[in-house]
Structures are given as C-alpha cells and as structure tokens.
Write a structure and sequence with these properties.
This protein is an alpha+beta fold. It has three helices and five strands.
C-alpha cells in the first residue's frame, strides 16, 4: 500500500516548491506556471492548478513531474507528510515585472475549487 498523500492547496504547494527554487512566473486562468533555472541554464517548469484543495490524482501527477527536477526523498516530505515551513519570500511574475511577496501568493490571485468556473 502506498503512503497517503497530504491534502494541499495551490498556495501551500507553490510556497513549498519555492523552497526548491521555483518561482511563479505566470498566471493564466486557473493555472500558475512555476519555473526555476539551473546553474547550467536549463529551465525547469511545472504547472499548478490554482484550486483551494488539489485532488489526490492531481497532486500525484505534480509529484511525478516534480521528481524529474527535485530528489524524490525531499519531495516525499512535502507530498506525503513530514512537514515543511513556508519560504521567506516567493517571487511572483506578472508579465515582465516581478514583485516579492512575504509568505503567500498575491491575494489578488483567485483560487477556484475545481468545479467553479465562473
């Protein structure tokens, strides 16, 4: 039996992935694009749906994708328990301008519940 996934919101997930160097570079509709650039110049990109609570299959898919860039042992603590603390800041991109935000995503970013497409 595989370990049970934690219930995470998009905000919590984006903050936690910020600890691994990912930054929100774009928000379009109900999805955020997170990116980090390695020291050799390669760009690593993840797309996260901005829902209040991410479904287990969605979290599992994000976990598998993130494992391509971050060691699985480090991600397991985030996705399957063991705790994490939010980053000191998260850089959010809006077009070509970037803003530093303490602790949380920009409050103007609306989160949907998954079925709410208004």
């Amino acid at each position: 039996m595989s370990p049970r996934l934690r219930r995470l919101s998009a905000r919590e997930l984006c903050q936690a992935l910020g600890r691994f160097g990912f930054e929100v570079v774009a928000v379009r509709g109900s999805h955020a694009k997170l990116r980090r650039t390695t020291t050799d110049g390669h760009r690593q990109t993840l797309t996260i749906p901005l829902h209040r609570e991410l479904a287990s299959p969605t979290l599992r898919a994000i976990f598998r994708q993130a494992c391509r860039f971050v060691p699985e042992e480090e991600l397991r603590r985030l996705f399957f328990g063991g705790g994490w603390s939010p980053p000191l800041f998260l850089t959010v991109g809006g077009g070509r301008r970037y803003t530093r935000i303490t602790g949380n995503l920009d409050p103007s970013i609306r989160l949907s519940t998954g079925g709410d497409h208004r």
